[in-house]
Amino acid sequence: MKKKLLVPVLFAVAISASACSSKASAPNTESTAAETTTATETTTVEETTTVPETEAASQTIPMGQATKMGDWNITVNSMQIVENIPDGYGKFTPDAGNKYLLVTMSVSNEGKQANSFLPSFSMGNDTNTKVVYGDGYEFSKTNLLGYSKSLLDSTINPLSSKEGDIAFEIPDSVASATDAIILEFSNGNEKLNFSIR
């Protein structure tokens, strides 16, 4: 009779011992989950702090500083706002209420083939430009047909350079304001921002 009673008692002790050990392991699982959550939160914080560094990479470039984009080495030499642009026997005049923002620059082709700088119809990885004023107002380049100093559609041989102008037609209000003007070049995913005012 003692043997029959002893087996259920031992069985009950074994079950309660295993229950205690699984309860003891449960807090460890919870602390591991808490540690995992903390590690995830730390990673998220680190990713957030890297965003400002990316923005810092898009700082503006001052005039006179040569900067490479793709096969092009670009230097913005000067900027002026003018009522008209003389060329030979004639002149180019903007629409009423507008002025020309004229950017003079030097460009060199460091690629291995002749290439067209600022083509009129850009596709894919062609270089393009625009002017960004104040709170994000964008002005596209103006093609002055026949202008002898224009850099638009300029074919430049490898290891050669050319100096010329790019014109933008802007309203008088932008011309007379003091807000910043940025000359932005883009080529695929690359961007260059020159501070011109």
How would you characterize the overall build of this protein?
- This protein has helices at residues 2-56, 172-176; strands spanning 61-62, 67-69, 72-82, 85-87, 90-92, 98-109, 115-117, 128-133, 137-142, 154-156, 160-171, 181-187, 190-195.
- It folds into two domains: 1-57; 61-195, Sandwich (Immunoglobulin-like).
- The strands form three sheets. It has a nine-stranded mixed β-sheet with strand order 1-13-12-8-9-11-6-3-2.
- It has two helices and 13 strands.
- The longest helix has 55 residues, at 2-56.
- It has 197 residues and is an alpha+beta fold.
Strand order of the largest sheet: 1-13-12-8-9-11-6-3-2
CATH architecture of the largest domain: Sandwich
Shape: globular
Structural category is: alpha+beta
Number of H- or I-type helical stretches? 2
Distance between the termini: 104 Å
**Approximate helicity band:** 25-40%
Taken in chain order, the helices and strands follow as: HEEEEEEEEEEEHEE
Low-confidence stretches: 20-57
The structural domain count equals 2
Please report the total strand number as a whole number: 13
Q: So what's the CATH class of the largest domain?
A: Mainly Beta
- Indicate the mean pLDDT: 80
